[in-house]
Amino acid sequence: MLMIYFTYDGYGRSWVNGNWREAHYERKYHKSWEQRCRFWFCCVASPKRNQITDISRIISDFFMELDVVPSDIAAGFLLLRNFQKLEREEAIRHNPETGITKFLSGVPVRDTTLYITPNDASLLEKAVHYMHFANGAYGWPVYVVGNQCGLAKIMPAICCCCCRPQDSSDIIFDDNFCGCNYTALQKTLKLMDVDIIYVTYHCDIGETPFFVAIDYNYKKIVISIRGTLSMEDILTDLNGENEVLPLNESREDWLCHRGMLHAALYIKEKLADQKLIEKALERDPSRQTDTYDLVVVGHSLGAGTASILGILLKETYPSLECFCFSPPGGLLSLPVVEYTKTFTTSVIVGEDVIPRLGLRQLENLRADLIHVLKESEDPKWKTLSCCLLRCCCCCCRPHQMPNHNIEDYKEQKMNARLAIDHTLDNERVLSLHHPLYPPGRIIHIGKDDPDSDDESYEAIWAGTKDYDEVLISPRMMRDHVPDSVLTALKQVAFKNATR
Q1: Catalytic residue positions?
Q2: How confident is the model over 260-294, as pLDDT tens digits?
Q3: Cα-based torsion angle of the residue sequence 495, 497, 498, 499 in order, rounded to the nearest 10 degrees
């Protein structure tokens, strides 16, 4: 019943009858998706709920004229995964033309690709160090999931708000009654010489939790921003339209993700109103004898917000650094990405789907999905059942497009993507949005065979456009989890340190 509610399209008949482009039906379609979104996010009691209208329009534009059912999407994903594998195999076979020697969790490795070497050991150590800060921003849920007996570890340190020290009320804001989130943060950073200046767990649409701390190990002031953990955060993620960065010298081609820009502006305003950076610099003059520079870190939504916040603060703090772990793909336009390469390092693990997600990538995914479903000569039941049997160690495999080779498929795929631009109204074509990419220089950590149980990772410097396509993989969400990122980073850093 839930599946029918979420996927039933009551306006399909209008489209079939040729009346789809009439404004009357289009308004009804947008309205139906707005009602669904308001139902899904009914627990969000925010004065900014009016943004749901904009978000529902983005979703309805994506599904408009996509006449499929859930089983079609499942079959299409299975077919796409097979063809993505075939494309990678073909690229390696044509090495003299492509220059590709192998793929590292979906990212091409060419003759010119640079591997992470022992010379980069200090950078990897810093990345591991600041990943703990990004992890700590999530509070108790991620700590409990990522640590063995995590709940038992934080329970003895939990106390109600009446029993907390008086000075903590000036530091901690909007934590729960027992202070679980702040307790988990302290446990996460307990092995480091850190002094927490300010932490807020206030969460709203375009307003995400963060904390400010002094890192005496690296002599830095750290701003760590939380990733997606609530319905409000999801709405911030979904508000993915392009918006011009509000800099002193505004440039029209410097575009970014609207929802994360609002979150960055919120944090910047908090930093200025409460003079948090100034307080951190003056916290302990006896220990802070050297210059303390600014570092902004975050994971997922926090990484995207951290990158934009770093751009906004760079003019005031020229020595600022930014570490973005698993940042979203639809974040910055190419001119901004080139600018951030001077001070931003991004870390992406495996076949993580989030760095490959943006409005343009979603539109291409939709075109590819429709194309493989149209071209496949196997019935849907056979595609789904054969995949299930292969999971059960059966050699059965569906026959896909027997009349075409992989080169024909790639050409038809590009034609299908281009056709979208001409068949839909310009105001509804997501691919006409300016393409956005992950920020900074990118360290990609992956494996030669992502499907193997071997957890031996390698790391390379990846290109910005290596994440321009959504990869269908069983690990596409697992590789995004903060603990997976930290584990992979630690392994690569240890391997480099022992070389």
Answers
A1: 300, 352
A2: 999 999 999 999 999 999 999 888 888 877 889 99
A3: 80
